[in-house]
Amino acid sequence: xITRQLGSExxxxxxxxxxxxxxxxxxxxxxxxxxxxWTADGDGGGPGIAAILRxxxxxxxxFTLFLSLNLLLPLVASIWAADGLAGEAQHGxxxxxxxxxxSRVRLLFVKLFGLTAMSLFAVTLMAVVGIIAGTAxxxxxxxxxxxxxxxxxxxxxxxxxxxxxxxxxxxxxxGAVALAVSATTEHPLVVQAATMTSIIVFQVLGQFSSLDWxxxxxxxxxxxxxxDVMRDPIPFDQISDSTLLAGCYLLIGTGLAAIRLVTKDS
Amino acid sequence: MTTSASAxxxxxxxxxxxxxxxxxxxxxxxxxxxxxxxxxxxEGAVLGMLGPNGSGKTTTIRMLLGLVRPTQGEIELxxxxxxxxxxxxLPHVGALVEGPGFHPFLSGRENLVRCAxxxxxxxxKQIKQAVEDALERVGLAQAAHxxxxxxxxxxxxxxxxxxALLVPRKLVVLDEPTNGLDPAGTREIRKIIAELHExxxxxxxxxxxxxxxxxxxxxVAVLHRGTVVAQGELTELLQAGGSALxxxxxxxxxxxxxLRQAKISARPLGDGLRVELAGTSAPQVIETxxxxxxxxxxxxxxxxxxxxxxARLTEAEEAxxxxxxxxxxDGGAR
Lengths: 266, 334
Known about the structure:
The complex is a heterodimer of chains A (about 270) and B (about 325). With about 270 residues, chain A is mainly α. Chain A is built from 9 helices and 2 strands, in the order H-H-H-H-H-H-E-E-H-H-H. In chain A, about 70% of the residues lie in helices and about 0% in strands. Chain A is globular. Chain B has 2 domains: about 220 residues, Rossmann fold; about 60 residues. Chain B is elongated, with a radius of gyration of 24 Å. At the A-B interface, helix 1 and helix 5 of A face helix 3 of B.
């Protein structure tokens, strides 16, 4: 029963026109980046990870996801979370599911699963397209790390896979909080606006050193540290901090969503 | 038409009731949507829930389906108390509440498949067949491949009905099922309700269309301003209280004074009298008249129409709309 509900949820998400448009947009990012680096022949510019992109196609997926995590991926996660509960309530389909019946806790689980599956799919898709586009435009001669060493292609792929998991987890954490908002309203746009405003405000707050006591609590603070997967060997402290922080967001978001959903009139 | 196995309210029935509410109350903030609703839905009945817009029909239905938590009161659905028994009872309940809710970007068939995936009683292998059967039953088979977005109001309503009928149900709850349907569509809905009734399902239909309820229901519950003002078997309700005798007599004056002496209320009407049967019976009235020497040409039982009953029960509101209720009273006689 549960597997068919989960399957139905993912199929439903994949059938949505806006999901397809969103995925198409996400796929364009690594292509545009690869193309941009390729045409910006010469100075190879930029600090940090951007500096090693030239002639290093395997870095494109990492750089793409790293860039997208700041705005694009939270946006997509918030859209899915918004459609999941607020959107269903708006169309009157939430009532149908509850009368079927699906228990409210299980419904939240189904929604969280859909969000996770689609996030993993989207991030993986971006990574795969990134590898292909990066290799095509910039060439592939192993993966150069930020520490200056070069990894074999197989090792590079492993690093990319690891990064995909980390980024997906951050995306799901944002989505879980968005789901909590989604459980309180019938207006999907409210959910997206609330989520994106928070992400942007968090990033602005992260710029003020006078507020550094606040920074460990902002999920956005953890985003840059994930790029440590590109060091050799990988220093795990920042990565584990970021993941732990995202885990807290995931737990709190899911908990709030559950509390709201269970007592909700629909 | 009166069945002898009536008066379910008096019997300490345990199994004969498909749904029951006790002292149901729902507040939204400071407004009370529903108050002191004691509803009884006998098994196998077609209960018409009647009431003006905003009388609490939909709120009551939503509480009955576990969608809304009552502020106060108890609900029993198919023998289990809600909300705890929801997972046990609801698989046997099909519902169309507050208009059909579907995804605009999916076709009618895809929408039903999604509904079916969440039906506990439907094995995976039977989903396809169940969806086709339901589409066929509501007459949507031809339009099943089209997107829900492009459906007419009537088609949307039919799809909602199809979703309620995906699985054989013990109880079907239809909230305003004929909204937006043309007369042919309305007849089809009535036919489906009659079929469900024949198969032994219990049906709860809410409506503000009186004729619809009168045509399809065995039982009626009238809601007004959030409370049940009358409920029971349709035939009984129509006979109770409101019944009168229409007596055709040339001696109106004599008849009136005789009846007045016998403390029977009556008033002149057309070529005769209208005699209220409250506290008396037809033979007694005729006896009184004959003894007084008033010639009785004809005496007809004045059957109360649902419309009149409804008008009386929801009087306050009807009064504001002028004489419309009285018009139907006279026009709808006999």
